[in-house]
Design brief:
- This protein is mostly helical and 112 residues long.
- Helix content is 82%, strand content 0%.
- Helix 1 runs parallel beside helix 3 (50-70).
- The longest helix is centred in the C-terminal third of the chain and has 37 residues, at 75-111.
- It is elongated, with a radius of gyration of 15 Å.
- The two termini are 14 Å apart.
- It holds the Pfam family DUF6542.
- Keywords: Membrane, Transmembrane, Transmembrane helix.
- The chain crosses the membrane at residues 58-79, 85-106.
- Residues 5-108 form the DUF6542 domain.
Length: 112
């Protein structure tokens, strides 16, 4: 197993931090921050962190939505934020999955 790249906890913390900053700024920056954080995490992760990378986009979005509820935003505001992020979330999950598959394939070819 390759040790190049970031461990699972660093990947999760980095993507969550980027998405959290986008959530604090708000508006169109939140979906862009989710996409950027998760794609960068997929690129920077080591092979043992691939499951975390693939599973984290919906978890991050849900955590940010819950955090906005806890910090005083209305329930409808949080739901509206989730609904605007959903198309980006689906595209992010597809992009992250594709990046992981390509990295797995390239890793296999290098060992062979």
């Amino acid at each position: 197993m390759s040790t190049k790249g970031l461990p699972w906890w660093a990947v999760a913390a980095g993507a969550t931090a980027v998405a959290g900053v986008g959530g604090l700024v708000g508006g169109p920056y939140f979906p862009a921050a989710v996409v950027a954080g998760c794609v960068l995490a997929a690129i920077a992760a080591n092979r043992s962190a691939f499951f975390t990378v693939v599973a984290q986009p919906p978890l991050i979005v849900t955590a940010i939505a819950v955090a906005t509820l806890l910090f005083g935003q209305s329930f409808l505001g949080a739901v509206a934020q989730l609904s605007t992020v959903f198309p980006y979330l689906a595209a992010t999950m597809a992009a992250v999955g594709l990046i992981v598959l390509v990295r797995l394939r390239l890793g296999r070819n290098r060992r062979a």
